[in-house]
Amino acid sequence: MPRRPAATDSLEALAQDTLACERCPRLVRWRSACSQSGPRAWRGTPYHSRGVASFGDARAELLIVGLAPGAHGANRTGRPFTGDSSGDFLFSALQRAGIASQPTSRSVDDGLALRGARISNAVRCVPPGNKPSPREFERCAPFLARELALLRRPAKVLCLGADSWRAVARALRAAGYDVPKPLVRFAHGARYRCGELEVLASFHPSRLNTQTGRLTPRMFDSVLALATKSLAR
C-alpha cells in the first residue's frame, strides 16, 4: 500500500531540500568544478551548481525519471534536461505527444510548461562521468520516494535508462509499492505494474544513444505513447 506523505510535506519543500542538500561531498565538489571546465560557450556563465529539483505539473499522472543532471545542462541551468542535447531530444518528443508547450528547453525562464507530466532524476546532483556511486544513489533515494508519495495521482512512471529503472524500483518499494521480485529486466519498452501504477522503460536520450541510432525518435515516441495512453491530461 503506497504510503501517504507527511501532512506538512509538499513539492515546494522537497525542492528546497534538494537545493540545500550537501550529503555527497564528491558531488558537491564536482557540481561546482563543472563551471570551470565547461565548453567555451559557457565559460564565465554563472552555473546553478546545486541539487536540481524536479520540474513540471504538480498534478502529474506521468513521472519521467532520468539518471542525474547533465554537467553543462541541468547543472548549469537548474532544471532537468535543460540546456543540452538530451533535453532537445526529450522535449521535442514531449511536444509531439502533447505534453510540452514547446520543443526546446534552454533556460528556467524560457516559458516551457508541462501538462500532466513531471520530470525528475534518480540522483539530484551531477556525478563525475555520469556515474553516481552506490552510496550516492542510496543518499539520494529518499528524494525520489518522497516525490512518488507527494504526486498523489501518478499512474505511470517512465524510466530513462537502466540506472533509473533500478532506482525507481527501490524508491517505489520505499514508498510502499509492491514491486515485482525479481525485478523485470531492463530493456527498451520493458514494463511492469505495481497495483494501479505502471512502470515503463526507455533507453536514455543521451547523445551517445541518439547519435548512434540506439535510440531514435520513432523508438522513443512508441514508448511515450504507451506512457501517455489513458492519462487524463
Secondary structure layout plus pairing:
Blueprint: H1 11-20, H2 25-33, E1 55-56, E2 62-66, H3 74-77, H4 85-96, E3 117-121, H5 134-150, E4 156-160, H6 162-174, E5 191-194, E6 197-202, H7 207-211, H8 217-228
Parallel strand pairs: 2-3, 2-4, 4-6
Antiparallel strand pairs: 1-3, 5-6
Helix pairs in contact: 4-8, 5-6
CATH superfamily: Uracil-DNA glycosylase-like domain
Helix tally equals: 8
What is CATH's topology name?
A: Uracil-DNA Glycosylase, subunit E
User: What general form does the structure show?
Assistant: globular
In CATH terms, what is the architecture?
3-Layer(aba) Sandwich
Proportion of helical residues? 25-40%
Mean pLDDT across every amino acid position: 93
Strand proportion, as a percent range, falls in 5-15%
What is the CATH class designation?
Alpha Beta
User: Low-confidence stretches at least 5 residues in length (pLDDT < 50)?
Assistant: none
Provide a brief overview of the structure:
The chain is of the alpha/beta class. The protein contains eight helices and six strands; from the N terminus they run ααββααβαβαββαα. Helix content is 35%, strand content 12%.
Task: Outline the structure in words.
The chain is α/β, with parallel strands linked by helices. It has one domain: Uracil-DNA glycosylase-like domain (Uracil-DNA Glycosylase, subunit E, 3-Layer(aba) Sandwich). 35% of the residues lie in helices and 12% in strands. The chain has helices at residues 11-20, 25-33, 74-77, 85-96, 134-150, 162-174, 207-211, 217-228, and strands at residues 55-56, 62-66, 117-121, 156-160, 191-194, 197-202. Helix 4 (85-96) crosses helix 8 (217-228) and helix 5 crosses helix 6 (162-174). 47% of the residues are buried.
